[in-house]
Batch of 3 targets.
Target 1
Amino acid sequence: MTLTSGCAAGDNTTDSSAYESSSAPYDPSTEDPYTEDEPTEDEYTDEPYTEDPYTEDPYTDDPYDTETEAPDPYESGTCLNGTLPTSTTAQEVSDVDEVSCSASDAHYQVIETIPFTSDMSRCNSNPRTEYAFSSRYTINGATINEYVYCLIGLGSYAQY
């Protein structure tokens, strides 16, 4: 077994000219690569450093607005406006908001709140229920919380 280094296998020449370089050897007395020109007055000032790039947190704003707080559920006695369908089939409703019970547009009053469900048939167990309304809060398509509200109608919305 033959090990070779620096030459082709089978090349048994001992001629040192095969390793010669065409460049001249480095002479440190000719040039010092580490010396620099002295700084001028324009390059440096005596003023203290005043800006701190780390005082502001670049991550304080949430570009996806994912930290919005889930709305509180309506409590018993809360009045709502808007118009709810009288159909037993679930329909999307977007104009229902909390209002004062003395307001002229107070159409419904919450008589029961059932958390963790969107099954409006759960209101069937409350004999006073005239309307059922469900609310779901989601973030990025995932349900965070949901409620069913059992309601009675107020004024002309009452179903005696």
Note: The mean pLDDT is 74.
Target 2
Amino acid sequence: MPLSPTELEVLQHIAQGRENREIAEKTFRSTETIRTHVKSILYKFKARNRAHAVAIAYHVGIFQGLPRTDEQGTSPLKPPAPDLTVQIPPEHPAAAALPADDPPTRKRTAASGTPQRPRPTNGRRL
């Protein structure tokens, strides 16, 4: 059975990780109405839970060609990359390892920092 336009809208909000209460606020409907739509989506897709319903929707291509409704314009399945840069204050001992021609507030990423010791495998802390 095809999804109604309202069910499709609710499914898009579910794919963005919103709870029933948040969906209800955004769509100006009651929480109980959203719960009913979610139950209908799960029944029509024969899905076990909300995540399974979203996976089915992506698998069959329901979201292809639909405009994005999230504020950031990002995909709900691809979160933004975390910012791993660290500011090293000039008084910090690690600042002495910076080259002299670089300013003291040079950004360094975790990948370019000093190598970390491997963790012990026997479960004891060092």
Note: The chain has four helices and two strands.
Target 3
Amino acid sequence: MNEPALPAPTHDVPTEPYAPAPVAVELASERGPVVWVTDAYGRMVPMPKNLAPPPMVRPEPRDLTPLPLLDPVAQRFMGAGIGGGALAAGVGYGIGEAVNALAGLGSGALVWIALAVLAWRTPVRAVAGARGSTVNIRKAVIKRSHFYA
């Protein structure tokens, strides 16, 4: 029931790890100025001033005015993109309409040319409505010479 007590740990860690080792004699003139800085654990430790890190530079004050809900530059870019797209769509539509009109003009012109050629080739009597016909009679005399006759 009685358990033997564990031996106390023997660590060579000093209670003040950053305390300078005691010296026999220390004169005030030999010791430089000392500053107190925080270590990694948040404790204040003495340090010679020439080895201390430089003091932190105070940051500039920030502008804390609220920003607009939508960025004006982004709005301009978006407007330019939408406007450019609308412009491209309008130009494409206009070019398409012009091409369609030219195609229609071409086929319509071909119909009118065909009608003009047909009217030109139609006899005048047929156009005027006269009932008659033109008959071309061609008399051909063919004479052949035969050696046996």
Note: DSSP finds two helices and two strands in the chain.
